[in-house]
Design brief:
Layout: E1 2-8, E2 17-22, E3 25-29, H1 55-59, H2 72-75, E4 89-91, H3 97-100, E5 112-115, H4 116-128, E6 140-143, E7 149-151, E8 154-160, E9 169-174, E10 180-182, H5 193-206, E11 210-214, H6 228-241, E12 246-249, H7 255-267, E13 271-275, H8 276-285, E14 300-303, E15 328-329, H9 331-336, E16 341-344, H10 352-356, E17 362-365, H11 370-373, H12 378-390, E18 394-397, H13 406-416, E19 420-424, E20 447-450
Parallel strand pairs: 3-4, 4-5, 5-6, 10-11, 11-19, 12-16, 12-17, 13-14, 13-16, 14-15, 17-18
Antiparallel strand pairs: 1-2, 1-20, 2-3, 7-8, 8-9, 9-10
Helix pairs in contact: 4-8, 6-7
């Protein structure tokens, strides 16, 4: 009998943290942080003391009080006695924080399994943003698509899927009393959809007893389905019509989006301007994915903000930035030739507009609507609008989701045909009952026993 306990990711989008007990094994599927984590008790500078480990998180019920799971360091001020861990491992689907954000709490003796690509991205982000990204001190077991990883009587079979970031995986788990499929986050409408199709074929072949299926876009309402190709076409049209500088904002780890914008930029005879951090990301992922070389590609320039000396001296910049000075572009060059460039930017980089002084410019927002249009982001949205209005910049939205559409979810479930369907990573689990006869809907903290 399989037991699954839902410590997160049940009735919510994000926060995946599922304990699977089957085949003599005790394994966590993802170990993420919810998007609304801590917002009921903390705000801006009112934050927990990191040196006190899990003390505040336990106090307010933000992290489950599970014995034999957390490190001795994290338990030091909690009152929970440290005991050696009994979990056999954690299996990660991809690097997003709602799937990895609580890895730092784990006992370092629990092995963490993740794909090579996931590790590369997390390691790169850890170097760029050490205050926000950490892998913890656990032993990392890296895999690739097609590997088979035994854990007692279970065998984990990771297969790549398409998502809004590289290195995303779903799992087929062979178990003595019935196989288990765990989709992770996936989509079917981008350039790498064949990866998701490969995963679905393997899932179908496994004839699973249980399927844990993400449902980010399983909504009661009708949906408009945009593809990555349509995003590229819209971006290209905006660049073509623009009479000035084009700014574009998108998630740094969304490589498909970068490729779409890069292609549109080059085809319209412009150069794409990125910052030093994005150049570092491209360079560090180049051996995993075919990407333009930030130092050698004639269609890329690297923006250097003015610092200390105001003369762009090497010592003004961090060590990881300095090699890119060989392909630098400055505010003055962009200001003089605004129609020649498309510039990667973001909310925290708006200050550069003061120095560039854009004329007849366009701003393409190409990230999830949640981060700008959500109810909790009114202040951010207003500030952005004020900046754009001040400089007379026209706003555009061009985006497609990193998650499967409602129709693609329905088709996937009907193909895989699990005995039991468990909706996760969704705010609308009841919608799954319309497409499958045996749906078990978990709540946070629930343990489902599946015979």
């Amino acid at each position: 009998m399989a037991k699954i306990t839902f410590f997160g990711g049940a009735g919510e989008i994000g926060g995946n943290k599922f304990l699977l007990e089957d085949g003599g094994a005790k394994v966590y599927l993802d170990f993420g942080q919810s998007f609304d984590f801590g917002e009921d008790y903390f705000f801006e500078w009112l934050q927990p003391r990191n040196v006190n480990g899990l003390e505040c998180y336990f106090e307010f019920g933000m992290v489950p009080e599970v014995e034999r799971l957390y490190s001795e360091k994290m338990l030091r001020f909690t009152g929970m006695e440290y005991k050696k861990p009994d979990a056999d491992g954690v299996f990660i689907t991809h690097h997003h924080s709602d799937h990895t954000g609580h890895l730092t709490f784990l006992d370092e003796n629990i092995p963490v399994h993740m794909g090579h690509g996931t590790y590369r991205i997390l390691d790169t982000y850890r170097k760029l943003y050490p205050q926000f990204t950490s892998l913890g001190d656990n032993k990392l077991e890296l895999f690739k698509s097609g590997d088979e990883i035994p854990v007692k009587d279970l065998v984990f079979k990771p297969t790549h899927v398409e998502h809004s970031t590289p290195g995303a995986y779903g799992y087929v788990i062979e178990a003595p009393e019935g196989n288990i499929v765990f989709t992770g986050d996936f989509r079917m409408h981008g350039p790498m959809r064949k990866m998701s199709e490969e995963f679905i074929k393997k899932a179908v072949k496994s004839k699973p007893k249980i399927m844990l299926c993400e449902g980010t876009r399983m909504t009661p309402d009708a949906q408009t389905q945009y593809t990555e190709q349509q995003v590229y076409e819209k971006v290209k049209g905006i660049i073509q019509d623009s009479k000035g500088l084009v700014f574009t904002e998108f998630s740094m780890c969304n490589i498909d989006r970068f490729q779409s914008i890069y292609k549109a930029t080059v085809e319209e005879g412009r150069k794409l301007v990125i910052d030093t951090r994005y150049a570092y990301i491209l360079e560090n992922l180049a051996d995993k994915i075919k990407l333009p070389d930030p130092l050698a590609d004639e269609n890329l320039k690297i923006y250097f903000r003015m610092c200390k000396s105001c003369k762009y001296r090497e010592k003004d910049y961090y060590k990881h930035e300095r090699p890119y000075l060989a392909n630098k572009i400055t505010q003055d060059e962009i200001q003089k030739n605004q129609k020649d460039y498309v510039m990667f930017t973001g909310f925290t980089k708006l200050m550069e507009l003061v120095y560039i002084q854009p004329e007849k410019a366009d701003y393409i927002y190409s990230s999830s609507e949640h981060f700008l249009e959500g109810e909790d982001n009114k202040k951010k949205r207003t500030v952005l609008e004020n900046w754009l209005n001040h400089f007379g910049i026209k706003y555009h939205h061009a985006h497609c989701s990193g998650h499967a559409s409602k129709k693609d979810l329905e088709d996937t479930i009907k193909k895989i045909k699990p005995d039991v369907l468990i909706p996760i990573h969704t705010q609308n689990p009841e919608e799954f009952k319309k497409i499958h006869e045996n749906v078990m809907i978990p709540k946070e903290g629930d343990t489902l026993n599946i015979k």
